[in-house]
Design goal:
Blueprint: E1 8-11, H1 15-26, E2 31-34, E3 50-51, H2 61-84, E4 95-98, H3 102-118, E5 125-129, E6 144-148, E7 152-153, H4 156-169, E8 173-175, E9 188-191, H5 194-205, E10 214-220, E11 229-232, E12 235-239, E13 245-252
Parallel strand pairs: 1-2, 1-9, 2-8, 4-11
Antiparallel strand pairs: 3-7, 4-6, 5-6, 10-13, 11-12, 12-13
Helix pairs in contact: 1-4, 2-4
């Protein structure tokens, strides 16, 4: 039996593309996702999965948008898991950060008050003794640490498998194809092609609209699945539900190979 033509074609099978496809399919649209490299072949297939808020001050539309995304994430990922029957590894377990000196301690305490207002009761920015966390704590010169309870974690690869399964469970299609819509093209085409797509868009409009930032990560067999993540010295340390801990950072705007480890 011939398939009905797609109403929405999504170019790119990373988290943004699959998330759009999932939202459309839940609303009854016929969806096809096209990616020459398959599901989560780019940054969405990483290891770290830290979902952490901006500091609760200097509020602006960007921070408000991110807050709304963090606020909706528990219900959204629960929906993905219910439809796909797969775990995404999502959990809101908070984040620990060290406090370097007395000035930083005063600032952290001031942010506790602004977080109560800006985060609308969905999370707290607490300051407390580092020793309360036993051996799972960053070195902190003041002996105090920040715990923000709005931060969450997601296992990127498990999350992308769950999201892809949810799309197909809703009768969406995910195909490995060219980098053009081609015959799959529906009435609407959404481009979600990662940092390479930003370069293409920039060339089309004649200005820089963004770039890729390279990160590197390691995965350790350490089971701290119920512990908060740690952010210290530019490193994200994120325990996952499968009994591993990912450690990584994203810092390089100039690189030769997006997939290889730098020397």
């Amino acid at each position: 039996m011939a398939r009905a033509a797609a109403e929405v074609t999504v170019m790119g099978a990373g988290v943004f593309g699959l998330g759009i496809a999932f939202a459309c399919a839940r609303r009854g649209a016929r969806v096809v996702v096209v990616d020459p490299d398959g599901v989560a072949a780019g940054a969405s297939g990483g290891l770290v999965g830290a979902l952490a808020p901006h500091v609760p001050e200097g509020w602006n539309p960007k921070k408000a948008f991110q807050f709304e995304a963090l606020a909706m994430a528990p219900a959204w990922w629960a929906g993905v898991e219910a439809i796909s029957g797969r775990s995404s590894g999502y959990a809101r377990l908070g984040r620990l950060q060290p406090i370097a000196d007395l000035a930083a301690l005063d600032l952290a305490r001031a942010r506790s008050a602004t977080a109560r207002d800006l985060w609308q009761g969905l999370g707290a920015w607490d300051v407390g003794p580092a020793h309360a966390w036993g051996d799972w704590v960053p070195a902190s010169p003041t002996g105090q640490v920040i715990l923000d309870t709005l931060s969450a974690r997601l296992n990127p690869r498990a999350g992308m498998r769950a999201l892809a399964a949810a799309v197909t469970a809703l009768e969406g299609r995910i195909v490995r194809g060219s980098d053009r819509p081609g015959e799959a093209g529906g009435e609407t085409v959404v481009w979600a092609t990662g940092y390479r797509g930003l370069a293409t868009l920039g060339a089309a409009v004649g200005r820089d609209v963004g770039c890729g930032v390279k990160g590197q990560a390691a995965l350790l067999a350490v089971d701290r699945r119920d512990a908060p993540q740690i952010y210290a010295d530019g490193l994200h340390i994120v325990p996952h539900a499968d009994g591993t801990v990912a450690i990584g950072s994203t810092s390089e705007r100039v690189f030769d190979d997006p997939a290889a480890t730098d020397s």
